[in-house]
Amino acid sequence: MNAQNLPGQRGDHGEVIGTRRGMFGASGGGDTSGYGGLVRSVRMPGATRRPYGGWFDEVADELEGALDEQGLIPENVIEKTVVDRGELTFHIEREYLPAVAKTLRDDPALRFELCTGVSGVHFPEDKGRELHAVYHLRSITHNRLIRLEVSAPDADPHVPSLVGVYPTNDWHEREAYDFFGLIFDGHPALTRIMMPDDWQGFPQRKDYPLGGIPVEYKGAQIPAPDQRRSYT
Question: In degrees rounded to 5, what are phi and psi of residue 59?
Fold first, then answer.
């Protein structure tokens, strides 16, 4: 198979963090689709070089200038800027996240007044930064949409809370904590929002077992996938 015909290819740019075999990385499922032999690299998109295009450069310039006025070195705050699939994402060092969010909210030339939530992502292969938090920011004033992304290692899953900057993040951060185990420092009440309070583990991590988990509060158990009843 020609490498250029493989789905989801990003070219040679970016950082390879692993290799995926078969469709969705699954194996041992008796695949008959022909995708079982698929082998492709898992890449994190690399930094984009200027010019970014359109209003992306204007936002990047204004953000870097505003950080510089606060005595912050933009290169220390912004790990990389990525333009991918028509979206602008600033990868931020986690300790600077509240300062960047406040700048994006308050600067008249930026005015990203609304954070529509935070999404947790788990990349087990991305060693030292397995957990990612992605924030979606919208400027109602300028009709623009950008993203902020921070990462944290499994061994230290702490990210500063943005509830003080964007109060609507309250429940979104609780959900990311509940399902991914991200700990948002400074959150006013970081408790589970979906799972029972005494639930062990974080169900949306990639290494969370599929089935076979005792559901003690219902007196039942979910059978593992290979032990479930087949109807075929």
Answer: -65, -45
Rounded-to-10 torsion of CA 165, 98, 187, 148:
90
Do residues 163 and 188 touch, judged by C-beta distance below 8 A?
yes
Note the pLDDT of residue 209.
76
Question: According to the model, what pLDDT value does residue 73 have?
Answer: 96
Residues of the chain scoring pLDDT < 70? 1-13, 23-36, 211-222, 225-226, 228-232
Contacting residues for 221 by C-beta, under 8 A, at least 6 apart: 212, 213, 214, 215
Both structure tokens of 79: 């790990």
Could you tell me which residues are beta bridge partners of residue 43? 16
33-47 burial, b at 16+ Cβ within 10 Å, e below that, comes to: eeeeebeebbbbbee
Using CA atoms, how far apart are residues 97 and 86, in angstroms rounded to an integer?
A: 23
Write the DSSP string, the chain: --GGGSTT--TT-SEEEEEEESGGG--SS---SSGGG-EEEEEE--PPPSP--TTHHHHHHHHHHHHHHTT--HHHHEEEEEEETTEEEEEE-GGGHHHHHHHHHH-TTT---EEEEEEEEE-TTSTT--EEEEEEEEETTTTEEEEEEEEE-TTS-EEE--TTT-TTHHHHHHHHHHHH--EEET-TT---SSS-TT--S-TTSTTS-SS--EEGGGTEEPPPGGGSPP--
- The model's pTM is 0.79
Per-residue model confidence (pLDDT) at position 206: 87
Side chain identity at 102, as an amino acid letter? Answer: K
